[in-house]
Amino acid sequence: MAQYEAVENERKWQKQWKEWELYKFDPDSDAPPYSIDNPPRYASGALHLGHATGYSLIDFAARYHRQRGFNVMFPLCFDVNGTPVEVRVEKKFGINKYSVPRQEYIKMCEEYADSFIDSMTKQFEILGESMDPTVYYQTDAPYYRRITQISFIKMLEKGLAYKGEYPVNWCPRCITALADAEVEYDQNITKLNYVKFPVAGSDEHIVIATTRPELICTCQTIAVHPEDARYKELVGKDILTPVFGKRVKVISDEKVDPDFGSGIVMICTIGDKTDLEWVMKYKLPLEKGIDEEGRMTAIAGAYEGMPVKDARSKIIEDLLASGTIIKQEEQQQNRSICWRCHTPIEFLQVKQWFIKIMDFKKEVLEKADQIQWFPEFMKVRLQDWVNSLQWDWVVSRQRYFATPIPVWECEKCGYVLPAKEEDCYIDPTVTAPYKDACPMCGGELKGCQDVFDTWMDSSVSPLYNTFWKRDDEKFKRLYPMSLRPQSHDIIRTWAFYTILREHLLTGEKPWGHIMIHGFIMAPDGTPMHTSLGNVIDPMPLLENYGADALRYYACTCSLGEDHAFRERDVVHGKKLCTKMWNLGKLIEMTVTERPERVQLKPIDRWIMSRYTKVLEAVTAHYESYNFDKAMREVENFAWKEFADHYVEMTKHRTRGNDRSVRYTLYTVYLGILKMMAPMLPHVTEDAYQAFAGMDGAKSIHISKWPEPERIDEDAEMKGELTKEIIASIRTWKAEKKYPLNKELARVEVVGKGSELLKGYEDDIAQTVRAEKLDLLMEARLDRCANMVRPVHAKIGPLFKNQAREVVAQISTMDPEQVLSMLTSKGSFEIQLNDGRDVLITNELVEVLCELRYQGKAVETIQVGDLLVVIEVK
Q1: Distance between CA atoms of 546 and 9, rounded to whole angstroms?
Q2: Separation of alpha carbons 788 and 382, rounded Å
Q3: Which of 178, 588, 846, 863 has the fewest C-beta atoms lying within 10 Å of its C-beta?
Q4: Neighbours of 530 (CB within 10 A)
């Protein structure tokens, strides 16, 4: 078998496809559109297995729909925005947003992110992704940011966006607000400190257990559970905070957990979400103990200016020294952290821009129900997230490298002047407002310093892709998009925000389908992390095995599930590519011109019927994005039925002018290639070229999807029986260590079902190399004994010194006579030289028999109800 040179051939076809502009979307085409809301890959440069797998799954859908005649929009796009780029730039150059002028900082981020675009584009090309550079976009481009800004202005006009001062998630490292969806969690071990709080006007004290003693300076009240008998008399009393001596009241609230710590809690501004809920419920003052950079404020007294962590350590030290902390325990906590830099977050009350969510939760869920989810169970994640939301979406960020919020604000009265749609894209920190002064009070208008949350950009991708606010006619034709593919971890962000925003802006769902894939894990099933040293670089795999082999691994991954990486699947993928390629070389020697449809012979009707059923199943799997099932179906058929059986059965017919076998080989093999083409694009293209002139397309990827042939249940039943007969004889040859081409004098298939094989005799005889093949209803076989074999292992220990004499006598006996005695009595006697008679039982002797048919030795194989009789030549 020749070796398919994967990498060399893949590079050849990647270059050819670019020259042909094979994947170009035609916005003016009459063909039905199939548009993919492709996830813009983040401009970080490094390719990981998650990228390779996720984007391959998307490519399967794109390629399949091209073959189905759709005008496919599959944009090449990159996410070039936001905090992650800023974090990397600050780390690389040792800067922060305060140490470099704003525009210079932005330029450094742009140059850093753009430096990866060419290499990432090349990586997509090496993977065989059929993205279209003619509908290219990156999210930091003015043409894209324009859509983000216009969408915000529209929402502002409708009263869907507003500015307010509310407690928000705040990252002191990134110095910006965060939406709830941008908050992640980790497990942290900290100290639970049992702190004495004096009861005002007495010598008594209470004990409160807290992990955040640095926030005692912002304590607003103290709470106990109303049913906690220990503290019933405490409710309504005044308590003094340690260090600061602030007088606070004790209240009762059912949310207090009597079993945690001492059962008494201090409500601070703001330690966690529970604190926040109590603050809002009781309308408590919002004192600010921590500033935007994560340092203690003036109300922290001696701890002012200290970073939170240092302040915590110092106040614990002071409280221990004064005997105010009476004990400490280790406490495991679920800590809120920033999704990008993983710094612990705080809750700060800062003026921010918000998009309304709480008023539209029901509508978002209704829109989600209008979308087809693949797999369906992933919709539950969105539903759970929507139902858990308690706050509107904070969309402003105190960063630089993102889309500017297109408004000017009056410093005096707070009036907001939005940019005109026709002026967008605009940076209000650079461009002067189109009004000289505030129309309300005459005050100075200042450009908004904040930028949008990155999801504000990402969530308008369906609008951008369908020409919203660019071409109304195209928008009507293309919106909603066909497919949103994404991973399950961003359902609560990208999927949710897109459904919300498109509902608020268009009243429609953003896509017809959403396809959710999982993560690729390390081989042992654990997440891949650089810190664990278990990250697998896919580039060496691509160089060793080729893109199609790695894409085969993607074919093994079910939607919605995480999968451990298995290199053996990549190895198998390469073997499959070689098998299909070599199969093509064999068939192209037989099929030299397009065969005409003819009346098919029996065995051809069998494989054609099987092929049609496989085609129907594979097509259904593609339609529901079950690519793993599609590959499994077509691979099993191609390898185990078509190649291993049908091709072997019909080799003898390819040497003549058999039009039926030529038509069948051509149709089935071409169909197999087309079914595999979306998943294994390079090897199928290479194999297809031998038949391209016959099929009528320059590339398999723009060829027509196969048409089903006739299903023939009768032919299938008889063909399967024929296959079983041949397979059993080939297996028998292998067991006997005969070569598969060993000739047989005669094969008889005996039994009432043998008449089903009429018309298949020649296929069986030629494949198993039998000179003669007969189908018989019955046959008489004679069982003849032809050798007596003493069992030495039993005779030796039993007869010891006389064992040799016993063996000699048994070996010279008539096999038929021995068989008769053993069959009738189970034993016989022999006389030794010393005159003694000894008993020989079944255990001491083995009689070898052979079957004879018409006087000649034969062997038999049972195949279901049929007996296969073989006479060896």
Answers
A1: 9
A2: 77
A3: 846
A4: 8
**pLDDT at residue 182, as a whole number:** 82
Amino acid symbol at 506: T
Distance CA(171)–CA(292), nearest Å, equals: 8
Cβ count near 56 (within 10 Å): 26
- The pLDDT value recorded for residue 45 is 65
| d(C-alpha 111, C-alpha 468), whole Å | 29
Residues near 634 by Cβ (< 8 Å), separated by ≥ 6? 614, 618, 672, 675, 676
Which residue has 């509902």 as its token pair?
503
The Cα–Cα gap between 857 and 854 comes to 9
Q: Which residues pair with 240 in a beta bridge?
A: 247
Parallel, antiparallel, or unpaired: how do β-strands 247-252 and 238-240 relate? antiparallel
Q: Which residues contact 490 (CB under 8 A, 6 or more apart)?
A: none
Contact 312, 214 (CB under 8 A): yes
pLDDT at 530: 66
Amino acid at site 563: H
Which of these, 846, 828, 847, lies nearest to 838 by C-alpha position? 828
Scanning 411-562, the segments in alpha helix (DSSP H) are 454-458, 461-465, 472-478, 496-506, 538-545, 547-555
Tokens of 406: 């297109």
Confidence at residue 1, expressed as pLDDT on a 0 to 100 scale:
62
Which residue, chain included where needed, has tokens 């929009």?
73
Pairing verdict, β 247-252 and 221-224: parallel
Whether the CB-CB separation of 419 and 399 falls below 8 Å is answered with no
Query: Token digits for 315?
Result: 């106040």
pLDDT of 531 reads 63
Rounded to an integer, what distance in angstroms lies between the CA atom of residue 449 and that of residue 430? Answer: 10
Give the torsion through C-alpha atoms of 536, 538, 541, 546, to 10 deg: 160
- CA-wise closest residue to 626 among 706, 513, 711, 465: 513
In one-letter notation, the amino acid at residue 752 is K
Q: What is the pLDDT of residue 558?
A: 96
- Say if strands 445-447 and 407-410 run parallel, antiparallel, or are unpaired: antiparallel
Polymer length of the chain: 873
Phi, psi of 263 (to 5 degrees): 90, 0
- Pairing assessment for the beta strands 396-397 and 445-447 based on DSSP bridges: unpaired
Q: Write out residues in the chain with pLDDT < 70, as ranges.
A: 1, 45, 530-531
Amino acid identity for residue 458 in this structure: S
The DSSP letter of residue 24 is -
Whether residue 492 contacts residue 183, with contact meaning beta carbons closer than 8 Å, is answered with: no
| Residue 345: C-alpha distances to residues 177, 181, 312, 721 (Å) | 9, 13, 15, 69
Nearest alpha carbon to residue 623 among 721, 725, 482? 482
Eight-class DSSP state of 263: S
DSSP state of 457: H
b/e for 352-365, b at 16 or more Cβ within 10 A? bbbbbbeebeeebe
Residue 221 three-state SS: strand
What letter represents residue 144's amino acid? Y
Q: How far is CA 567 from CA 112, 175, 535, in A?
A: 33, 42, 13
Answer for the pair 190, 308: CB distance below 8 angstroms, yes or no.
no
pLDDT of residue 2: 73
Cα separation, 406 vs 774, whole angstroms: 88
Rounded CA separation 53/552 (Å): 9
What pLDDT, in 10s, does the model give residues 712-746?
999 999 999 999 999 999 999 999 999 999 999 99
Q: What amino acid occupies position 486?
A: Q
SS3 610: helix
Each residue's pLDDT tens digit, 305-319: 999 999 999 999 999
